[in-house]
Every structure is written in structure tokens, then in C-alpha cells.
Amino acid sequence: MHTANVYREQARDLPIIADIDIVIVGGGPSGLAAAVSAGKRGMKALIVERYGFFGGMAVAGLSGTIGGLYNSTQTGRLEQIVNGFAGQFVNLLRARNGVTDPLPFGNTALVVHDPLVWKETADKLIQEAGVHVMLHTLFVDAIVEEGTLAGIIVERKEGRGVIRGKVFIDASGDGDLSMRAGAAYQFGRDGAIQFPTMIFRMARIDWDRASLLAAHELEELIVEQVKSGRFQLPRRHIFLFPSPRKGEGLINCTRIARPDGLPVNGSVTEDLTWGEFEGRRQIREYERFLREHIPGFDKAYVVDSAVQIGIRQTRTIVGDYTLTNKDVITMRKFNSAVVRSAWPIEAHGKDVKIVNLDDDYYEIPYEVMLPQGVEQLLTVGRCISAEHEALASARVTAQCFEEGMAAGIAAVLSVRDSSTPRKADICEIRESMIAEGAYL
Ligand SMILES: Cc1cc2nc3c(=O)[nH]c(=O)nc-3n(C[C@H](O)[C@H](O)[C@H](O)COP(=O)(O)OP(=O)(O)OC[C@H]3O[C@@H](n4cnc5c(N)ncnc54)[C@H](O)[C@@H]3O)c2cc1C
Q1: In the chain, domain spans
Q2: Which residues, 6 or more positions from 295, have their beta carbon under 8 angstroms from its beta carbon?
Q3: What distance in angstroms lies between residue 68's CA and the mean position of ligand 1's atoms?
Q4: How many C-beta atoms lie closer than 10 Å to residue 392's C-beta?
Q5: How far apart are the C-alpha atoms of 386 and 324, rounded to whole Å?
Q6: What pLDDT shows up at residue 148?
Q7: Band (1; pLDDT cuts 50, 70, 90)
Q8: Average pLDDT rounded to a whole number, residues 355-362
Q9: Which segments of 40-175 does DSSP mark as H helices, in order?
Q10: CA-closest candidate to residue 26, choices 176, 193, 131, 166
Q11: Which among 64, 68, 371, 408 could bridge 317 via Cys, Cβ 3.0 to 4.6 Å?
């Protein structure tokens, strides 16, 4: 039926293309960890990813560093505090020279990874775990029967199809599955979300010279050049990270606003479209600035941009527990913890605000992954239930890996016991994680 603004789609039969135990939507850090953790425990698991590779924002968005592995310290005594799936993954990257040694970041540290080695490592792990994989496959809708998620609808080159499952894990980063399944969700602090960044890589950098410049000097140079009118550089607090490849660097410096100044919203197509153009425009402006003003960058050039603008935050679910800003600041511990974190609150608003934690860590409980309003669903990664500043800390890669690992195990237990993730034995999840090296 056609009216002025509506087209009524014809009802049609869709083929059931898979009937499986555990279905994961999204192959970023959290989805990868969930799929591998479920697959290696002998469960029939299937992962759906819209791109042709795994990595999500860490690879397609070139976020490029694994943060959240280490403690927060003012003494310089660095200690790894996260070591489950994250530890295994970093060790595999290290074995192939695909990751740097720890580099300081505020009171903690990060490691920079090579995106190709990241993809290859993910390929190997997922294949070894026997996970069924559908790349180039877009999740488009959820099938909910009496409040229970029973299947998903995907779009492929061949057309639409249905995947039925027993437990589902939403690792889409944007909470696509949770939203479609009718789970409660929200956007940041009263709708305010963080700004995205289009990250890029440069080659022919002389890091010996570039490293001599202190962060505050770099910031002062940017402010000075913007004032002079020679450059349009919307962000002054920028990060330049040496990558594992000699002379190469990962440049995290753009800030992608809409024409009205608000952050580009990664769940709105018009915003995303604008953001891609704006991101690539800003890359060339920062390249020009870096070459002209930063020692060691005079011969450097842009190798490539991220596959897409890096989206830090869109929807977050309303879970059985919401990680609060106070939990992070007071470094709260939980009996149901599935991961520790000492990453600062790194909030990308009009300015980059970094609040370092003091010589301790907080914990993220299992219940932040249980969306209210729907059964048989776990939601992981950057769309867990968390307040705005809390998410600005908890969203980094090591924590996403561990949440995925916990969710994968929870899904396995739910299928084994013909039960639901809401009733999963959290002690058993933690024990299973610890047995695989997690620090809990
Ligand atoms: C600009 C930027 C810089 C960052 N810097 C750092 C850093 O330095 N260190 C650090 O540790 N972390 C950093 N992060 C954070 C980190 O990269 C992300 O938080 C992390 O990747 C989130 O993992 P995720 O699995 O939750 O989601 P994502 O990485 O967003 O992965 C989601 C996956 O789901 C897929 N997907 C989405 N929707 C669908 C759909 N409908 N159908 C099929 N597939 C779908 C996507 O293609 C993607 O592969 C940064 C993030 C950004 C954006």
C-alpha cells in the first residue's frame, strides 16, 4: 500500500538459514571474544559481521591501541590487571610483532597494535574455535516471542534470512540488536554523547625527534596556529602513537562535529554520511599542520584513513545494574565482577577530559550486560549499561574483550542448563574465566 509518506512492505516468507545455539551480532573486540569463548567450549556459535573482517572500532575505526590492560600508578610500577581473552590476544599479537611495548597514557599505559595482524589473529582464533562465521552480513531485525528473543533477521547478497538461536549476544557497539528486540536503552548524559574521531596512519615519521615534544607544547602549538587563522584544527588535545611498524604512527586527533556543532551521532545515517566527509577533510588539515610544525613529521605522509569514523558512544542499554560514575571514581569492587579497569575517564566532549584513577582499579559487574525488557540476550562492549563518564572509562578494548569472554561463557552455561543468562551462575562464569587466565 502507498500513502504519501509510507510504503507497506509485502509480507513474505524468509528462509531459515541457520538454527544454532549461540548467535553473536558484531565482530568487534567484544563480539570476537564472545564467539571464541563460546566456540572453544564446544557450543554451536555463529557470528554475524557487516564488514569483511573482525575488529570493529579497534580495526575499522583504527582506534589502534589496546587500553585498559594495566594498573593506574603514580609510582611508575606498571602491572597488568586484565589478562583473560585480552591477555591471550595481546600475546598472539606480540608473537607476530603486531604490538608495541606498553607506552604511557596518563597514570596507566597502552599498547599499539597493527590492524592487519589484528585481523589475521582474529581469523585464526575464530577458525580454531570452530565458530560459524557470516561476514558481509547485516543484522536488520529481531524476532521476539513473548518477551524472549528467538531469532534475528539478516540481510546478505542472497537476500534476507532468519537465524534462530537459543542465546544471543549483542556486540554491535550501537546496541542494534537490543534496540530492535525492545530492550530499554539511552544515549549518554541526557542525550549528550562523545564526539567521534576519524583516525589515520602516517609513515616516514622520525619518532626520535617527535618524541622530544611534550604534550602541552603540542597543544600550545595547535592553539597558536588556530589563532593565527592558518589552520582549522578543532581539537587541541591530540594523541600521536608510534605503531609497531618502524617510522609509522597512529594519529588520533580529529573531532567530528555536525554543522550545528553537536557530536556526529553514529546511529543516524545523515550524521554518519556528513562525518565521513568531514573526517577525511580534517585529516588533510592535521597532516599539513603536523608536517609544517612538528619535529620529525616534515617528511611524513598519510598512509590511510580508518574504514569509517570512529564512534565512541551511541546507545547504551538499561541493564539490571548500571555502572555509575561514582563506581568508577571510588573504584568500587563487585562480587559479580567480570573485569577490572584502571583506565581513566577519557571523555571526548568539546575538549578531551581525562580523569586519572589513583593507584587502584574498579570492577565491572556481570549485570551491566543484562538488558531489561528481553530474555535470552546479553549486551556487551561499548553499549553496556553505564552512566556517561563511567562509559568514557569502561569502553576501551581490554574491558570489551573481557565482557565478551564473560558473555560467551554465560551463553554456554545458559544453553547447557536450558536456562537464561539472567539466571546464570556468576561464580561459575568467573571460575571459568580465571581458569583461562583472567585476573579477578
Ligand atoms: C576514535 C576512537 C578511539 C579509540 N581509542 C581507543 C584506544 O586508544 N584504546 C582502546 O583500548 N580503545 C579505544 N577506543 C575504544 C574501542 O575501540 C572500542 O570501544 C571498542 O572497539 C568497542 O568494542 P565493541 O566490540 O563494543 O564494538 P565495536 O568495536 O564498535 O564493534 C562492533 C562491531 O559490530 C559490527 N556491527 C555493527 N552493527 C552491525 C549490524 N547491524 N550488523 C552486523 N554487524 C554490525 C561492526 O561492524 C563492528 O565490527 C577508541 C574508540 C574510538 C571510536
Answers
A1: 16-191+315-435, 200-305
A2: 206, 209, 210, 212, 213
A3: 14
A4: 27
A5: 6
A6: 97
A7: low
A8: 93
A9: 56-59, 85-95, 115-128
A10: 176
A11: 371
Which tens digit of pLDDT belongs to each residue from 378-429? 999 999 999 999 999 999 999 999 999 999 999 999 999 999 999 999 999 9
Record the cell numbers describing residue 183, joined without a space: 530492550
| Sole residue written with cell 507497506 | 8
Q: CA–CA separation, 3 vs 5, rounded Å?
A: 6
pLDDT (0 to 100) of residue 215: 85
Q: Cell numbers for 225, please give them.
A: 596556529
Helix/strand/coil for 201? strand
242: exposed, middle or buried (Cβ count in 10 Å: 0-12, 13-18, 19+) = middle
Distance 428 CA to ligand 1 centre (A): 28
For residue 199, give the C-alpha cell. 583516525
- Tell me which residue has its CA closest to atom 48 in ligand 1: 56
**Backbone CA torsion sign across 231, 233, 239, 241:** negative
Distance CA 265, CA 116 (A): 28
Which one has a higher pLDDT value, 359 or 98? 98
Specify the 3-state DSSP secondary structure of 376: coil
DSSP string, 267-318: T-HHHHHHHHHHHHHHHHHHHHHHHHHSTT-TT-EEEEE-SSPBP--SEEE-
Confidence check: pLDDT of 213 > 90: no
Cα 218 to chain centroid, rounded: 27
Q: Looking at the predicted structure, is the pLDDT value of residue 84 above 60?
A: yes
Mean pLDDT, the chain, rounded, equals 96
Q: How far is the CA of 337 from the centre of ligand 1 (A)?
A: 22
- In this structure, what DSSP letter does residue 228 have? T
**pLDDT confidence tier of residue 2, bands split at 50, 70 and 90:** low
Query: Closest ligand 1 atom, CA of 32?
Result: 25
| Distance from C-alpha of 395 to C-alpha of 387, rounded to nearest angstrom | 11
* Domain 16-191+315-435: CATH superfamily, name plus number: FAD/NAD(P)-binding domain (3.50.50.60)
